[in-house]
Amino acid sequence: MSTPISEDDLHAYADNRLDGSRLTQLEAWLASHPEERDKIEAWRAQSERFHRAYDAALDLPVPPHLLPAANSSRWIELRRLAAVAWLVAGGLGGYLLRGEVSPPPTVLAQESLPRMAAIAHAVYTPELRHPVEVGADQEAHLVAWLSKRLGAPLTPPSLTGAGYKLVGGRLLPGEIGEVAQFMYEDARHQRLTLYVQPRASIAQDTAFRYAREENIDVFYWVDGHFGYALSGNTGRDDMLRLSTLIYRQLDRQ
Amino acid sequence: MSSRNAIIAEIPRLRRYARALTGDMHLADDLVQATLERAMEKWRLWRRDRDLRPWLLSIMHNLHVDQLRHGKHIDYCAEDDLPDIPCRPEQLDSLEIRDLDRALALLPLEQREVILLVGLEELSYKEVADTLGIPLGSVMSRLSRARTRLKAILSGETSPHHLHVVSS
């Protein structure tokens, strides 16, 4: 015999996890060790008893209150967002692995930035209870937290002059690491989100660009280390005005 | 199958395991609901090259341990929202099942988890190790202790209702 029979082998045999020569070897060994065979039979009887007792739970109708947790629209949206994030990250990763120094500077700003921002906007603005991870009432904490996680100082621009107050912010999966989303709300509860993509310094600064994604207006631009995208449904002119306000404030930081 | 359907498809298995682990269908469903909620929050930590079931079970394990540690259990089921379907169906409450519930409850949690993940959920030993975040060697030693102890409990050697013979 190559290896002595251990207690672990007996469990693996009881659980039908052995095959090949080890199985043959163990069966031969058990033939001369009836007390061990009894032990194994007792273990198997335990597992069978678990199934007899608890398999009925498999056939119970799933109570409706369990389904919303797995079935919510938020989950579906998040999965879609995840799919996009994975696709983009995978694409960029593959590009970098091929030995290129950096991805083409226009990729981030022109294609994925407004798309990612619009999806994140669509996912979180309808949230009533948890639209943000950290609320505006803890702004100092929010600034410190986001700056630390994103590796660069980041302060949410103020839009109170334009009638929008800051609701708060959250972190999201982005193309290369995490991104920040700030949410604003006006007196009529119309919401805007500012999506901030760090580590965009490889991209050249751009002027304002406009995109419309799934009925969401997005103004976006790249400035220094960050790519920004403002998403909302308040009308193109209003969005441009707000984007300009944000741009000026960020420029002074 | 979409990821969402894959999650929904896991609900019956999660309920069975939670029922065996907690000894109560109502507690089990609260644990399953908390697990689904947490999975939703943490979904981006799930790597697609890993199986969904051990990931969900590991979330359930962590939540259950937390609940026990803090001496609380999360009750999401508002009285008004309770479904018409009884949480505690008759067929799960036969005497044989209650005996098994009591016997399992006498095992330390760490042994109960391992014996159920192996014997009921039929996870591989490696998957059990990943689910519980323990080394493979610990899985095997806990499994061995659990089986020995459960056998003793079920055969009455360490019954909680053991009647002491008082010598006259």
Attribute tags:
heterodimer, A: about 250 residues, alpha+beta, seven-stranded antiparallel sheet, 9 helices, 7 strands, about 50% helix, elongated, B: about 170 residues, mainly alpha, disordered C terminus
Give a quick precis of the structure.
The complex is a heterodimer of chains A (253) and B (168). With 253 residues, chain A is α+β, with helices and mostly antiparallel strands.
How would you explain this protein's 3D organization?
The complex is a heterodimer of chains A (253) and B (168). Helices cover 49% and strands 18% of the residues of chain A. Chain A has 253 residues and is of the alpha+beta class. Chain A has a 7-stranded antiparallel β-sheet, sandwiched between helices. In chain A, a hairpin with a 2-residue loop joins strand 6 and strand 7. In chain A, helix 1 packs across helix 3 and helix 6 packs antiparallel against helix 7. The radius of gyration of chain A is 28 Å and the shape is elongated. In chain B, helix 3 packs across helix 6 and helix 6 crosses helix 7. Chain B is globular, with a radius of gyration of 18 Å. Chain B has 168 residues and is mostly helical. The C terminus of chain B is likely disordered. Chains A and B meet through helix 1, helix 3, helix 4, helix 5 and helix 6 of A and helix 1, helix 2, helix 4, helix 5 and helix 7 of B.
Strand order of the largest sheet of chain A: 1-2-3-4-7-6-5
Biggest pleated sheet of chain A: 7 strands, antiparallel
Largest beta sheet of chain B, briefly? none
The SSE string of chain A, one letter per element, is HHHHHHHEHEEEEEEH
Strand content of chain A: 15-25%
Shape verdict of chain A: elongated
- Sheet/helix structural class of chain A: alpha+beta
Low-confidence stretches of chain B: 73-92, 159-168
User: How many extended strands of chain A?
Assistant: 7
Count every helix of chain B, treating DSSP H or I runs of 4 or more residues as helices. Answer: 7
Percentage of residues in DSSP E strands of chain B: under 5%
Mean pLDDT of chain B: 79
Order of helices and strands of chain B: HHHHHHH
Shape of chain B: globular
Total beta-strand segments of chain B: 0
Distance between the termini of chain B: 69 Å
Mean pLDDT of chain A: 78
Secondary structural class of chain B: mainly alpha
Assembly state (oligomeric): heterodimer
Helix content of chain B: 55-70%
